Amino acid sequence: ITFQLPDGTSGEFSLILYDMLGRQVRSLMKGAAEPGYYSYHWDGRDDNGTLVGSGVYIYFLRAGDQNAARKMIKLQ
Fold first, then answer.
1. How many other CB atoms are found less than 10 A from the CB of residue 6?
2. pTM for this entry
3. Can you tell me whether residue 10 is helix, strand or coil?
4. Core vs surface per residue 10-19: b (16+ CB within 10 A) or e
5. Cα separation, 56 vs 19, whole angstroms
6. Fewer CB within 10 Å: N-end or C-end of the chain?
7. Cα 70 to the center of its chain, rounded Å
8. 3-state secondary structure of 8
């Protein structure tokens, strides 16, 4: 998962993964936001460390007052 935090972004940011039913699967990243490019490699596990199945997932990025959601497909 690659994303950019634009100039003017400040404060906390989070990257959270949800399944198609809206259930949180994993909190991928949280921390202080600095403008720039970021990359995260998801290992296919949920917050409990259990491998999740193939399917469509949504990752949601919150940074300051900006929000973005994107779909991704996990194949095994």
1. 10
2. 0.84
3. coil
4. eeebebbbee
5. 7
6. C
7. 9
8. coil
